[in-house]
């Protein structure tokens, strides 16, 4: 066994311990920490995160990775260590190229920009945020320019969030999707919205928590390898192998919101819970492939959770836990969870219009990075695209360009990964039906665990060993295509809306 390889494994264990401590403190800050402990917790969080960062950028670590990158040594490593060396050495080299002063300035500017964005959003006034956005765009270009001087900055950003993906592939997939979705949305709009008055009411929060636990267990979340808590915004966090946690947010009048958040975050968590234990402390255990991760949460939330058959075995229990559901006919419930209509806010959008929200952001990012459209023209461009794609025009910037925080912190190139996740889902569904049979039958008979077992076998257990394009090739055979997702939408919504 290569001695340097053993040293790197020990070194990785050390980094993971700091990361685990940081993740635990961060979890605590968002779910349970009393107000008076916040300063102290933030200080501890800063300490552990900085240590983890210092270790992963240390010269000592870089030279070990360099040694393992030599072709004759690299060839002798197992798959998980090859992935680890390739990714971590790439990141190490990228970071070495960024001047320290610039990096500190970038982090500070991004923190300040987030605050300015919050104020501008509150005021609904883009002009307050424009100078900060301008600076973040320029600095992000400079930042990735240091990391990968020979590449197009936007391509580097896309690859950072979804390794192996580029704008040529995304252009092809998104334009196919856009062409297919616009007529579908027109047909859905023409059919009219369902009457959902019977859902109005008050839904006990303690009971909603029981529903969350029921749903998590039902889809395959392992409570012996995770936990659930409450936070302002739902999220999933992996502390270590054997401890993947989810949070939820409850609202007395919006029971569907916490139910679908539970299924969504549960999907993220099941993915990480199912990663093979052989990959502990390697890069394969950390899934930084945002599209692939999102494909798993969305598969559970949308493909499974919004299919009426998913609820057939559950609807009676739902009524027992949350009695108002007893008075709501099953059919009305199914219409409610598939109420497709244009709206301004991405995070509140249904599964169909959501795709168009992301296409809009992708087109905006290309306008910013590749066409250099001046910042002051961005709000109007946003509104025009909103009208083109969804047929509605925002009244103010808060429900338009200011709604998401991503750009304020420099996360350009992140948005497309959300939609890529759904595109992969269409392909996974097609493959599942080919191998396991009709989805409605499986769900109606309560055999959802067969689907979770399939996802584990084909996708989850490998963690991030393969990037998304490789996963698609291995599991579905072929390249990423929007066609299966469009086929799924067309057949589902023509059935529900009767056109
Ligand atoms: Zn998610």
Short characterization:
Helices cover 65% and strands 3% of the residues.
Structure in words:
The model has no long low-confidence stretch (mean pLDDT 96). Strand 2 and strand 3 (243-248) form a beta hairpin. A three-stranded mixed β-sheet has the order 1-3-2, sandwiched between helices. The protein folds into two domains: 3-161, Methane Monooxygenase Hydroxylase, Chain G, domain 1 (Up-down Bundle), CATH 1.20.58; 167-497, Neurolysin, domain 3, CATH 1.10.1370. The chain has 22 helices and three strands. The longest helix is centred in the N-terminal third of the chain and has 29 residues, at 3-31. It is mainly alpha-helical. Helix 9 packs antiparallel against helix 16 (351-369) and helix 9 (167-191) runs parallel beside helix 22 (483-497). Bound molecules: zinc ion (ZN). Zinc ion (ZN) binds at residues 264, 268, 294, 297.
Low-confidence stretches: none
- Helices and strands, in order, run as HHHHHHHHHHEEEHHHHHHHHHHHH
Question: Structural class of the secondary structure composition?
Answer: mainly alpha
Our measurement of the CA-to-CA distance between the termini, rounded to an integer number of angstroms, reads: 64 Å
Instruction: Please give the largest β-sheet.
Output: 3 strands, mixed
Note the quaternary state here: single chain
Number of strands: 3
Strand order of the largest sheet: 1-3-2
